[in-house]
Amino acid sequence: MSQTGVRIAAVGHYAPEGILTNEDLEKVLDTSDEWITTRTGMKRRHVSSEKQATSDLAIAAARIALAKTSLTPADIDCYVVATVTPDYPFPATACIVAAQLGASDKAAFDIEIACSGFIYGLTVASSLIRSGIYKRIMLIGAETLTKIVDRTDRSTAILFGDGAGAVILEAAQSDCFLSSELGSDGSRPELLRVTAGGTRYPLTPAAYEARDQFIHMEGREVFKFAVTKMISATDVALQKAQLQKTDLDWLIPHQANKRIIDAAAKYLDMPEEKVIVNIHEYGNTSAASIPIALSEAVESGRIKSGDIIVFVGFGGGLSWGAVTWRWAA
Ligand code: UT7
Fold it and tell me: How many whole angstroms separate alpha carbon 13 and alpha carbon 82?
C-alpha cells in the first residue's frame, strides 16, 4: 500500500428549519433565558420534524458538500457517519445515506463514540486515505438528539439540538493531517448515556416508566472532565505534530458549553476571534457540532489555505480526542 496525504476537498452543513429558543423553553420548563445563556451560551437549537431521521440530515449535508465539487456520489469510495442517534439500532445509517445518494455499492459504516465521533471519524477516514486504501471518503457528523432528550428534564432538555456537517476527504500530495490524540474511559458510563435500549438494559415498560430511553447526564462531572480533556488532548496532539500553541490559527471545539470552550481557549492562549463558536445558534449537536462549525467558518472565508487548526471534542464514553490539521483550499 502506498502512503499518500489527505485534504478536505469540500465541507457542507444542514440544520433543520424548526427552531427552539430559550424563550420557548421558558414556557415549558422551570428555567430562564438568563440561566441558559450565562451557564451555556446557548440561545437557539434547530429541531428536526417528526418525519426527519438522522440520515435525512446527513444526506442534505452531503449533497451540499458534493455541490461544491464536480464529484458525483459514485466518486466517493466510502461513506462514514458519526452519530449517536442512528436511524435504527442497525443497519448503519451510513449504508442508508450512501444508497439514498445513489452510491449503494460503496463501503459504508457508522462510528458511535458520541460527541467525539467527528474526531474519531476524521482520524479513521484520514488513515484509510493516507494508507492508500481509499481515495475519497465522505465523513458526516449527523444527529437528531432532540428525539432522545427528556423534555421534562431541565438539566438536559435545554442543551441539545439537531444538525449535520459533512466533509469530503481526498488523497492529496501534501498531507493536511498532522496528528491525532484519542482516548476513552468507560469506567463510569452512567455519567453520560442513554441507559435503556441496548443489551444491558432492554427497553421494558419499567425502563419507559423510569424515562431511561432518554439521555441522562451528570452535568457537573462531565463539565470537569471536559475542560481537563480538551486541554490535555490538544496539548498531546500539538506535541505529536511538533507544534506550539503559538502555531495555532484556529480552535474548532465541540460545542457543548461556552464556558468549557472559554476555559480551554484561555489555557491555549487563543484569543476569542480565533475560536469558532456557534453554540448560540445550534446548542450541542454532538458529533455534528465540529463539522457544522468548520463548514460555517470556511463558508464565511475565515479559514485560509495554510492555516493550522485544532479540532477537539469530548463526550459520552467518556471519550475525547483532538486532531491537528493544515487547511488547504
Ligand atoms: O457533549 C456532551 C458533553 N456534555 C457536556 O459537556 C455538558 C457538560 N456540563 C455542562 O455543560 C453543565 O454542567 C450544565 C450546563 C449541564 C449545567 O450547568 P452547571 O453550571 O454545571 O449547573 P449545575 O448542574 O451545577 O446546577 C446548578 C443549579 C442547580 O440548582 P441548585 O441545586 O444549585 O439549586 C440546578 O438544579 O442550576 C439548576 N439548573 C437549572 N436552573 C435553571 C439545572 N438546569 C437548569 C436549568 N434552568 N435549565
Answer: 14
Q: Which residue has the cell 442534505?
A: 60
For residue 1, the model assigns a pLDDT of 57
**What span, in angstroms and rounded, lies between the C-alpha atoms of 252 and 309?**
7
**For ligand 1, atom 20: residue with the closest CA:** 39
Residues 90 and 126 in one domain: yes
Q: How many angstroms does the Cα of residue 57 sit away from the middle of ligand 1?
A: 28
Low-confidence ranges of the chain (pLDDT < 50): none
Sign (positive/negative) of CA torsion 28, 30, 32, 36?
negative
From ligand 1's centre to the CA of 154, what distance in Å? 9
- Domain boundary pick from 117, 146, 175: 175
CA distance 151 to 214: 9
Nearest CA to ligand 1 atom 2: 315
What's the CA gap between 23 and 29, in Å, rounded? 10
Pocket of ligand 1 from Cβ distances under 6 Å: 31, 35, 39-40, 115, 154-155, 158, 219-220, 222-223, 226, 256-257, 260, 284, 286, 315
| 228: containing domain | 178-326
Q: Identify which of 65, 115, 109 has the alpha carbon closest to the alpha carbon of residue 90.
A: 109
Q: What pLDDT is attached to residue 211?
A: 97
The b/e string for 2-14 (b: 16+ C-beta within 10 A; e otherwise) is eebbbbbbbbbbb
Chain mean pLDDT for the chain: 97
Q: How many domains does the chain divide into?
A: 2
Q: How high is the pLDDT of residue 24?
A: 98
Catalytic residue positions? 115, 254, 284
Vertex 16 angle, CA 10 and 18, to 5°: 155
Q: Are residues 142 and 192 located together in one domain of the fold?
A: no
By alpha-carbon position, which residue is closest to atom 47 of ligand 1? 31
